[in-house]
Amino acid sequence: MHPDSVRDERPPARAVSHHGTRHGVEDPDRVAPGALSDDAGRHGTGDGTGDGYGRPVSTESLYTVTVGASAVVGMLTATVLLRRVAARPAAEHDPAGADAAGPVPTVRPEAPTEHGPVGGRQPAPAAPGAASAANGLPRAVSHRAVAVVAVIAGVLSALVAVRLGATWSLPAYAALAVAGVLLAAVDLREHRLPNRGVAATAVAGLALLAVASLGGAGWAPFGRALAGAAALFAAYLVLALLAPSGLGMGDVKLAGALGLYLGYLGWRPLVLGGLGGFVLVAVAGLFLLGARRADRRTQLAFGPAMVAAALITVLVHGQ
């Protein structure tokens, strides 16, 4: 047979089409429209809508904006609220909720006699800028103290944003960071936890965590948050009744508010956050004893340790 009569069985070559094929085979160097690369599947779609596991993620720019906005809002909110707390007379707070570290002794003025003050001593003048909870005068708060508290609140809000990212639960835990810093600052200064501050923390948690549940987390975490709040409140109430000199009702109420946020994360964070306050206050007490800044009779404010334990738990177990 003549060679020219041999039929060429090879298929004709096909040009590369605009659909990304060559010789009928997908071009490995081209990704079809709408398809995700391996990197995109791991880190998100690139449009901030989600990742390969269905969790909401953000692009780098949105992530930066989220962290920065959380820091700025936290600082501004802390500044405004601290000014309002400082300007409010102490008599407006319920004494039952104004004690965070057990009973604080009240100095009663000695009754004068017809010969003058008892013992012939004149009453000691009040320190400049100081205020007494008995007469309801607000205590002066320096600009430096406000700035320090605002910076701490802003930094913690940013850390929460770094941990959680642009999720529905971020507003709730950023609010916890700001409110927790304010309550801790008041407790350190006054040895009291204002009822209004604790109540506002709890109400904000209820509202913002409910929004997070509506946003896609489901209602199971919200139900667990309510159960966690009740459990931590009951546990602290029992401890306060057994040892009233160690815990005040302000601590009990704060425990209920913190249990809401911790319970939303899970049972393990609830237990760790609830017990962490006792560990931190014990460490602080040992440090002060070693530095001779306190003795065994010194009563430490427990609110800051509770807040610190809760925020550490959020940063470790946040989701």
UniProtKB/TrEMBL annotation:
TM ranges are 62-82, 145-162, 168-186, 198-219, 225-243, 273-291, 300-318
Instruction: Give the matching InterPro entries.
Output: Prepilin_IV_endopep_pep (IPR000045), Prepilin_peptidase/N-MTase (IPR050882)
Q: Which GO terms describe its biological process?
A: signal peptide processing
The yes or no answer to whether the keyword Protein transport is present is no
Molecular function terms, GO-annotated: aspartic-type endopeptidase activity
Q: Which Gene Ontology cellular-component terms appear in the entry? A: plasma membrane
Q: Where is the composition biased (Low complexity)?
A: 120-133
Any idea which UniProt keywords this protein has? Membrane, Transmembrane, Transmembrane helix
Which part of the chain is the Prepilin type IV endopeptidase peptidase domain? 176-285
User: What is an example of a Pfam family matching this protein?
Assistant: Peptidase_A24
Basic and acidic residues bias locations: 1-12
Q: Which domain of life is it from?
A: Bacteria
Family, as annotated: Belongs to the peptidase A24 family.
Name used for this protein in its record: Prepilin type IV endopeptidase peptidase domain-containing protein
